[in-house]
Amino acid sequence: MPSTDTTGQSHLPDPDPGPERHRHHQGAQTDAPPERPGLTGPQAVLKPVITVLTIGLVFVSVFLAAFHTPQAHRLPVAVAASDRTAALFDVRLQRVSPDGFQVDRYPDNASARLAVEHRQAYAALLADDGDPRIVYAGANGPAVSALVTPLASPCAPGCQPTDEKWPVVDILPLSSGDSRGLSVFYASFGLVLAGFLFGQVTYQVAPRLSFGQRVSSLALFAAVGGLATALIASTAFGAIPGPFLGIAGLVALMAGAVAAATILLIRIFGPIGVLLASIFMLVMGNASSGGVLPPEFLPGWLKPLASVMPPGVGVRALDGLAYFHHDGLVNGVVVLSVWIALCVAALFLLDRIAASATSATSAAILHGARP
To answer: pTM of the predicted model, to two decimals?
Structure first.
């Protein structure tokens, strides 16, 4: 029926507004997780405590389990010597660490030395010329140096003065700007931490970014972070030798892989994704990275992660670029690139699914609104 307003004029009902009135205009595509209301009451008090303590206690447990009494496990050692000299060397190895070494025989001094330089062995007995000497790479860190140095002595304290003592030579020492061999780890840890924080903060400050914008932000973060880290660690302090762009590229890939994984976990699990990223990327990743101790010093349950987690493959590649004739470089680039590609592809797929669901909902609303 017509309606009458206060002026006495009659108004007919509006005609069918058609689809335009009911159409929901789809905004920019977004990969943000579903919005959740804030917590209140006891949950608001307990959840932050439980979450943060879980991260902290996992960190304490994993790092103490890995490093409270580190022991070498089958550390590769090259031997180029006669059977008699090799047997004498094996006695020294057993005395220093009964299960700490794995002996690999080499045909000559040159091949055994090359194994040390390419990190196929941590030390080598060079004695095919009848003049025994032990060489090792100090670039592997103080733990390896401390384990190899006692091999010079033929026996425990109390041996005879006439017993032969073999010289020990460091053929790949650490750079002068890295006396403790921890610079690669610190530089890596800094950008791994930054990658985790970037993945978390990007959802806090910009939860509705489109997929393209978020990936662009990720790429910018990784590139600038890699260049800045190389500038500080390599140029300013001289702590990591090697080509500037190579160091920057590896650090960028490492930071990008951790950031992409963190974004994906938050995209899938919401706030729980922050907890998961903290445990796997920060705690497990850095504990297994080999930056503090070589992987051969890690417990058996932790060692396999060194070859698949971004911090582990990144640290090995950086060490190889700096000291060990590019050992682990190709593998590091490939593994880190795969991490980034898979995470970005998963984000794209989730975004497509979300966009399709939104379109289907809009179509259903539109269809139901028509007479």
So the answer is: 0.83
